[in-house]
Structure formats: structure tokens, C-alpha cells
Design goal:
This protein is α/β, with parallel strands linked by helices. The chain has helices at 10-16, 41-57, 86-96, 133-141, 169-173, 177-187, and strands spanning 2-5, 24-25, 64-75, 78-80, 100-111, 116-128, 162-166. It has a single domain, classed as Maf protein. It is elongated and about 55 Å long.
């Protein structure tokens, strides 16, 4: 059966290759703003991923396995999305430096033939080292933080600022592989 990744994320595409050699990419145009946060970060990321997956399901004619994910960064239960600009990235990193925060990913897998939908989430704790303002500005100059939730990429240059993680590394990258593997085994 055809596998479809509902994501334009190059990181998710690179990771999915480890579980599935052949898959198609369809970018969801689901409006994430439609999902209202209701005090559960796990439910919030799952519902955004579900919206992306259903959006693709409605466009697919053949039977398929659809995989969708959403990743957010939280600090003190406040959601840090993608920065709007360099100043926003600076402020986010300044908040994170020297502290612990959590990265949540919601994952949804749909088997259209069986009309089966699984959704789950993973949380990973990340601890940043102390950083001075010059280090933050130099990192922002790389442009890496500008398209990432929480304004950093653990798999890139941002990884040098990560003091430790507790949980799934791949979750922080954007696709918790072990969780996805278990979910795929259940739907196929």
C-alpha cells in the first residue's frame, strides 16, 4: 500500500526513510489556527497532526497509509512556535538558554483502506546551556532558527547549545521514530 507523508519538512522526510524507503509527499494545507488550545499540549499537537492527516485523506483516491506530525516547543507550559523574525528568535533563545523546556510531537497515522486512525504524542525534555547575547546573535545569523519551533534545530548548529535531553532525540528533530514504528505496526 502507498505511504504518504503529509509534510514538507525535509527533516521528517529524512527520518521517515529509516522506516519506509518508498513514500510520497503531499503537503497539507490544513489551517493550524483552527485548532484551539484547551489546556492539554498533548491533545493540541495530536489535533494539529490529525487535521493535517485528514486534509490529505480527503485528497487521496487510492488506499494509503497517511503519516502526519506536528512539533512544538514549550517553556513553562507556554507554546513557542516558529519565530516571526530575527528579534523574535533572539527573544525565544534568550528565554530557553540555561533552562529546561519540553518538545512535543503529535503523530497521526491513517490507514484509508481500514478507515483506521491512530494518534499519539511524545514529550522530550531538553536542557540548554547558558549562552551570551553574542552567541545567540551569531546563531541567528546562520538563519537556522528562523523556520523552527522554539528557534533552534537540535540536528544542526543549535545542537551545540543542548546540554542534555531526556527522552526521544528524534522527537526533538520532528518525528519520533520509535513511536511511529509502533503505530505503523498497528495500522498495517
Amino acid at each position: 500500500m502507498k505511504v504518504i507523508l503529509a509534510s514538507a519538512s525535509e527533516r521528517r522526510q529524512e527520518l521517515l526513510v529509516r522506516l519506509c524507503k518508498n513514500f510520497d509527499i503531499m503537503v497539507s494545507d490544513f489551517d493550524e489556527e483552527k485548532v484551539i488550545f484547551q489546556n492539554s499540549i498533548d491533545e493540541y499537537v495530536q489535533n494539529i497532526a490529525l487535521g493535517k492527516a485528514i486534509n490529505i485523506k480527503e485528497k487521496v483516491k487510492d488506499n494509503a497509509i497517511i503519516i502526519a506530525a506536528d512539533t512544538i516547543v514549550t517553556l513553562d507550559d507556554k507554546i513557542l512556535g516558529k519565530p516571526k523574525n530575527e528579534e523574535d528568535a533572539f527573544n525565544m533563545i534568550k528565554l530557553l538558554q540555561g533552562r529546561s523546556h519540553k518538545v512535543y510531537s503529535g503523530v497521526v497515522v491513517i490507514n484509508t483502506k481500514k478507515d483506521l486512525i491512530l494518534k499519539d504524542s511524545v514529550a522530550t525534555e531538553v536542557v540548554f546551556s547558558q549562552m551570551n547575547d553574542d552567541e545567540i546573535r551569531e546563531y541567528i545569523k546562520t538563519r537556522e532558527p528562523l523556520d523552527k519551533a522554539g528557534a533552534y534545530g537540535i540536528q544542526g548548529i543549535g545542537g551545540i547549545f543542548v546540554k542534555e535531553i531526556r527522552g526521544c532525540y528524534y522527537n526533538v528533530v520532528g518525528l519520533p521514530l520509535n513511536k511511529l514504528k509502533i503505530m505503523l505496526e498497528k495500522v498495517i
